[in-house]
Amino acid sequence: MTQRIAFIGFGEAGTAIVSGWTDVTDIRAFDIKTDDETQRPTLLSRYQEHGVAGRMSAAEAVRDADLVFCVVTADQAAIAAGACAEHLKPGALWLDMNSCAPSTKKNAAEVIEAAGARYVDVAVMAPVYPLQNLAPLLLAGPHAAEVEPLLKALPMSPRVVDGPVGSASSIKMIRSIMMKGMEALTAECVLAAVRAGVDDEVLSSLQASNPDFDWRARSAYNFERSLAHGIRRAAEMREVVKTVADLGFSPDMASATVAWQDRMGTLDLGNEVKEDQDYREIAEKVLLKLDNSG
């Protein structure tokens, strides 16, 4: 049976997934950026490029859809669920792929389920490029086992984890304390080292302590990730802060990571650096921009 598929949000994640599919033909999408006249031509062109039927409202996109992939920013996930719920057909599967705190996902699930649709907590556990549709996914909640074979058939790479809605998200959020935190630590450590003129010694010392980890290459990579995606990463880390706080203790490291990811993302250097550049060249660009913006 052909599944009618809708995407709410059609940025990097949505386009990556669709680009990897070869036999999925009934796809429609809505991205809130089409509400902005200056961004609308870009989105309409993107829909056409990826062979999807672009819609001018969320209601149009999800109407009669069997599977709805919600791939918006973390801060918009609950809003998107609320905007779409009443327009979903009974039994439709809402796949919340956003990087949100378990409590955020549980709130969204209540809205979707109350409307007669079925909510699935989905965590994307690796960058969507270069893996595209085959990026590993964790699924949780009462409908996870049911949706797993549907996703595999597209194809995608899902795995069900035990527990209610929020279980997959917990794994993703808690992992991000380390993964996104390493990017923030890289920024503070390497920028300080370059400014002090001791970066070669600092990174050589780190290399000696951890010989299996290429600190110079990884520093360049971490810089590029934060500079290109810092705003989105900061939004995700705000959900991590919420996750840790909900667990009953202070999210000090996660909160600091929000600040660094936000700071790096707002420098508007994402198009000027590459992950294979020399770390020092990137650091000097960042320092210059920080000085000028301060």
The percentage of residues in β strands lies in 5-15%
Tally the helices: 12
Describe the strand arrangement of the main beta sheet, using strand numbers.
Answer: 3-2-1-4-5-6-7-8
Estimated structural class: alpha/beta
Radius of gyration: 20 Å
Low-confidence stretches: none
* Large-scale geometry: globular
Gap between N and C termini: 57 Å
Beta-strand segment tally: 8
What is the average of the pLDDT values?
96
Share of helix, binned: 40-55%
How would you describe this protein?
With 294 residues, the protein is of the alpha/beta class. The chain is 54% helix and 12% strand. It has twelve helices and eight strands. Strands 3-2-1-4-5-6-7-8 form an eight-stranded mixed sheet, sandwiched between helices. Strand 5, helix 5 and strand 6 form a beta-alpha-beta unit. Helix 10 crosses helix 11. The longest helix has 32 residues. The chain is globular and about 60 Å long.
Set out the fold topology.
Blueprint: E1 5-8, H1 12-20, E2 27-30, H2 40-49, E3 53-54, H3 58-62, E4 67-70, H4 77-84, E5 93-96, H5 102-114, E6 118-124, H6 128-131, E7 136-140, H7 144-152, E8 157-160, H8 167-196, H9 199-209, H10 215-246, H11 252-265, H12 279-293
Helix pairs in contact: 4-5, 8-9, 8-10, 8-11, 8-12, 10-11, 10-12
Which descriptors apply to this entry?
single chain; 8-stranded mixed β-sheet; 8 strands; 294 residues; 12% strand; alpha/beta
In short:
With 294 residues, this protein is α/β, with parallel strands linked by helices.
